[in-house]
Amino acid sequence: MGKFYPLLQAYHHEILVEAGCDEAGRGCFAGPVFAAAVILPKDFFHPELNDSKQIKEAVRDELRAYIEEKAICYAVAQVNVDEIDEINILNASFKAMHLAIKKLQIVPEQLLIDGNRFKAYKKIPHHCIIKGDGIYASIAAASILAKTYRDAYMKKLHNSFPHYNWKNNKGYGTEEHRTAIGQHGLCEHHRKSFNIVSAQIDLFD
């Protein structure tokens, strides 16, 4: 038997035009935070759609193409490292979502936000849903787009900074990444506002 995927809810409100929103890269040591906003048709379905963290990379890439083809509209935005350090990662995540919503070709009547906090965007009503990317299709779709766009961005950065191995760790604080920071120091793409320590330092704790 293949892996079982939960049946996601197609919508929160049957009539309102809803946009699902999610971010990727909030906890990373390096690189921008990305966010996506997606408006899906009410009958949208894909058997493997789920929270992006629960899906293998190859499947995420397939889903990205499917979502982009079938969505009524979608948008992806990012906030760079300098601004993350200036306004903090939580506000940067909210701003990335706002930028994505603003880029949508259709103005949504309701927003479905993954997580428990959000800064209201204009006067559009919103609902914060904890683990919403495993509940609503539009949030799951947004999580797929945000994750795949960010991963592609980090793979490009890897070409200029191969010693951090961002093509694999995508900027997250893995032991490998932290060891590389201990050997090579921080670069322009690291978030200076984060308390980043190398794995080598831990050896002396």
Secondary-structure topology with pairs:
Blueprint: E1 18-24, E2 33-39, H1 57-70, E3 73-79, H2 81-87, H3 89-103, E4 110-114, E5 126-129, H4 137-160, H5 166-169, H6 175-184, H7 199-202
Parallel strand pairs: 1-4, 4-5
Antiparallel strand pairs: 1-2, 2-3
Beta-sheet strand percentage? Answer: 5-15%
Q: What is the total tally of β strands?
A: 5
Mean pLDDT: 93
- Output the CATH class name: Alpha Beta
Report on the structure:
- This protein is an alpha/beta fold and 205 residues long.
- Helix content is 38%, strand content 15%.
- The protein has one domain (18-162): Ribonuclease H-like superfamily/Ribonuclease H (Nucleotidyltransferase, domain 5, 2-Layer Sandwich), CATH 3.30.420.
- The chain has helices spanning 57-70, 81-87, 89-103, 137-160, 166-169, 175-184, 199-202, and strands at residues 18-24, 33-39, 73-79, 110-114, 126-129.
- It has a five-stranded mixed sheet.
- Helix 1 packs across helix 4 and helix 2 packs across helix 3.
- It is globular and about 55 Å long.
- The protein starts with 17 loop residues before the first strand and ends with a helix.
- Belongs to the RNase HII family.
- It is found in: Cytoplasm.
- This is Ribonuclease HII.
Observed structural traits:
disordered N terminus, 205 residues, single chain, RNase_HII/HIII, cytoplasm, RNaseH_sf, alpha/beta, five-stranded mixed sheet, 7 helices
